[in-house]
Sequence to fold (312 residues):
Amino acid sequence: MGDPCGVGPEITVKAVNSKKVQSVANPVVVGDAGVLGAVAGRLGLRPVPENRLFHVPALGSREIRPGRPTKKSGAAMIRYIEEAVFLIQKKEAAAIVTAPINKAAAKKAGFTFPGHTEFIAHLTGTKKFNMMLGGADLKVVLVTIHEPIKRVPSLITKEAVLNSIRITDTAFKKDLGFKKPRIAVAGLNPHAGEEGGMGDEEKKFITPAVLAAKRAGIDVTGPLPADTLFYRTVKRKEFDVVIAMYHDQGLGPLKLLHFEDGINTTLGLPIIRTSVDHGTAYDIAWQGIAKQTSLVNAITAAAEMAKRRANR
Fold:
């Protein structure tokens, strides 16, 4: 359900009642029954059926003020994630789809992780993982995720880039139905370093990682200048996925194309996890105007991945 003070409860109620979702999955909502009921009643929406609700009594609707997160709401959103992961681990569900959380509120409740992705990796004992965001026209995998720009260069190592390439190749084959995905790797510096004239991370770390992946039989190209790479991927259809070195390098182009319909997928986990590609949107919380498109797409994608794993 995500942050109870944000748009999560609203888009969750809308998505569960979506015919598109019901045609591909049996959705079960992990969240607070009181909050979900209050949202549905306030907006005139059909409530989540009892047999579609896994109630986590972390708080009540009277303790919630839309758009105003608290320590209690922060603790609640963490519990929803924990319970959802446990349901997967107990094989009572096939995939987890997360609505947005607020990291500041979560930290007030003792949350020490940068976001959902790192927390779910911790709960599943996963050390190597990547965040992928995408839509029909563009998919982007990040080598570094929520890191300050000044730290990014020190985190670009051969091992980090090579792991990202391997995880991406495996996930695209295992969960996304690609026989041989075409992977493009962006450079860190302008013009991909221009042979050392604008930085040496490409020569020292990125190129060796790409060459190692090629020797392993992966269809990968790079490092390529980021200023032309996204054009080649979207317009010329040369690649199936882009591996970007840092958050805004990859997500700026991605959100230009898929701001409303993009989804977030964590690659490398033992479980299937997708998410919306937007935040809590406190300014429109509980007003009936939040769009459920990204959540519906995330649920649909998770269902497709689960079917592929089951078929194997």
Summary: The chain has a mean pLDDT of 94.
